[in-house]
Fold this sequence. Notes:
Helix 4 packs parallel to helix 8 and helix 5 packs antiparallel against helix 10. The protein folds into two domains: 1-63, Arc Repressor Mutant, subunit A (Orthogonal Bundle); 66-200, Tetracycline Repressor, domain 2 (Orthogonal Bundle), CATH 1.10.357.10. The radius of gyration is 20 Å and the shape is elongated. By secondary structure, the protein is mainly alpha-helical. Helices cover 76% and strands 0% of the residues.
Amino acid sequence: MTEHAAQGAAVPGLRERGKARRREAITRAAFELFAERGYDRTTVADIAERAEVAPRTVTLYFPSKQEIALSGFTERAQQLADRLRERAPGESLTAILGAWVDEKHAEPWRQGLEEEARLMFCANPELRALQMARMADAVQAGTEAVAKDTGTLPTDPGPRIAAAAAVAVMLAVGDSPSGTDMHAALATALRFLDGGLSTL
């Protein structure tokens, strides 16, 4: 490969890293402002100014302010659904859910903003409802997993109730107030879910 070709091959990687940095900067700026001013009182122009980009750049990455608020969650919800469908033989539903919560709190852009995100969702019923709606695919994947483990059908009420309850419990753990012992809360939640699943 020539030097020119090698440089050309490196460009997409640099471009993608630049996009990722801008996306993270916009997200962090938005959550900081949501915490300072409230979600409803923060505009796209405010977010652009804080992130040091043009308003058009914000809308290029996120069609709406709502999408910024839900962006990280939407991606994580899809990752959970994918993991449930691709789980290894013998891997339990609760193990996947526990790992998902742990990783959710380890995301770099969330550092220092966990409490702000929690308060934002608690204060905005519309965002909370959308958050639950975006877990629909994960609930379906969980339903299929529970049905497979219990030898029942995904259309039976038991698997779907169990999957919906599991997702709701994990969201509740993830929304624990600042200062909560997350390991203890997660352990309690997983014991609860294991107990419920054992009754199916």
